[in-house]
Amino acid sequence: MPVTLRDVQRMKDQGERIAMVTAYDYASARIADRAGVPLLLVGDSLGMVMHGHSTTLPVTLDDMVRHSAAVMRGAEAALVVGDLPFLTYASEADAVASARRLMQEAGVHAVKLEGGAPVVAGVRRLTELGVPVMGHLGFTPQSQHQLGLRVQGKAASEARRLLEDALSLQAAGAFAIVLELVPAQLARAVSERLRIPTIGIGAGAGCDGQVQVWHDLLGLLDGKSPRHAKRYADIGTAIGSVLSAYVEEVKSGAFPTAAQSSTMDEAELAQALAGLD
């Protein structure tokens, strides 16, 4: 059965931890969906892990629509959330127009946007129009040039503002909030004070759920994983080994064999070639 917003809220109410993972294409969505992942995020992190940018800022709404549509074709049961990219929800009108595209053209079930007080009015307007919205507080990647890549909310004033923003997003109708790079104690305190679920990434075990980036989980890219990530496998190395073996077999003539080839009647071939030599 498809996962619904009611299911997500029920998980929070019943103390069931919520697993969420990013997906950026048909294949990743299909694998994650069949593995039983209840929530898939088509994150604007695709700008880095799929397109090779250094930040999420170059990601366009067209990019998000295209990737989200592919994910929707691969996901049968999971609830799919699509990110609204940088400055595509700067005003209420922008937010409505951007959400319309992601939901109508790509078919996502919900949208996610970053920020607190400045986006509350947009969240309220979207939810009034029937758009499920997931919030995102703490470290917000679209603001990384302003914030710096660091844990957010360590000072009392920052922590209080984050809590107030979370409550405001909840009041505006958000169905869940991502807490990224937030001290574990603060994330737990926020989670305990909200009716809606929190989804942590680098925010400790006190959140109602966790989200991780597909490539970090599987070890698909070179380099050290972020501190908040756990590499469950080193699939990138395995893929490299497979491709190296393929190259060697092609060079040596070991591939393809008869098993990967088809044949035709020799008489038909002789007729086709007649008079050409």
Question: What is the strand and helix layout of this fold?
Answer:
Elements (H helix, E strand, L loop, with lengths): L4 H9 L4 E5 L3 H9 L4 E4 L3 H4 L11 H14 L4 E5 L8 H15 L3 E3 L4 H12 L4 E6 L5 H4 L8 H17 L3 E5 L3 H10 L4 E4 L7 E4 L1 H5 L16 H18 L13 H8 L4
Parallel strand pairs: 1-2, 1-8, 2-3, 3-4, 4-5, 5-6, 6-7, 7-8
Please, could you describe this protein's structure?
- The protein has 277 residues and is of the alpha/beta class.
- It folds into two domains: 229 residues, Phosphoenolpyruvate-binding domains (TIM Barrel, Alpha-Beta Barrel), CATH 3.20.20; 36 residues, no CATH class.
- Strands 1-2-3-4-5-6-7-8 form an eight-stranded parallel β-barrel, surrounded by seven helices.
- Helix 6 links the parallel strand 4 and strand 5.
- Helix 2 crosses helix 4, helix 5 packs across helix 6 and helix 6 packs parallel to helix 8.
- The mean pLDDT is 96.
